[in-house]
Amino acid sequence: MKVTGKAKLIRYTANPEETIALASKLCYSSRETDDLVADIESRDNAKFISMLHGMGHYSPFEHASFTFLIEGVSRALLAQITRHRIASFSVRSQRYVSEGEFNYVVPPSISALGKEAEEEYAAQMEQMLRWYRDWQERLGGACESANEDARFVLPNACETKMVLTMNARELLHFFELRCCNRAQWEIRNIAWQMLEEVMKVAPSVFETAGPGCLRGRCPEGSKSCGKAAQVRARKEAVLKEIQ
Description:
4-stranded antiparallel β-sheet; two-stranded parallel sheet
């Protein structure tokens, strides 16, 4: 069955903006920690977080973490997202979980070719499923030892699910790369969903988050998509959505 990628924030550091402010101010304050905590809890820390952005002082952002449930994505996306090494991943196993009725992702470029092309793609997925089931049966049935080798015939389109945790600093880096129009379409879609989710709970932390064209000239140079205005409009739409 065809599926679409979804990202949902399920856990995060309590009061992330206060946590980041505390981590930063502790470095330079001679006050007792209880007094410092009380002062931070009584303030709106948005301006202070903005100042940290302006200074490029991002080590305090590492003390706030965010955990997402991601589903409806392909194994091709898994290969990309795990390149972000400062993160934790727990991924559904194709060894312990049988893919006897696997879901799959359809690239928009194939859907754009029309109904006939999408039906052909679906038929190819069905063929791979038949191959998978055949190898399962020949290797001993739907069990761990059979699954681990039968899965070799499964496509990159096969759906996977994961729990992903990143700290705020790594998320800022992730959004800079993966919200960019030059990022692959599937991971870009997930990145924008993740950005919208974290902006609901920590708006000042992620106020500048996104590709470089949101903050100035496109860093891609001659490879720029030339659509900075559209990217900025998308970020503005996210801001309006959460207000």
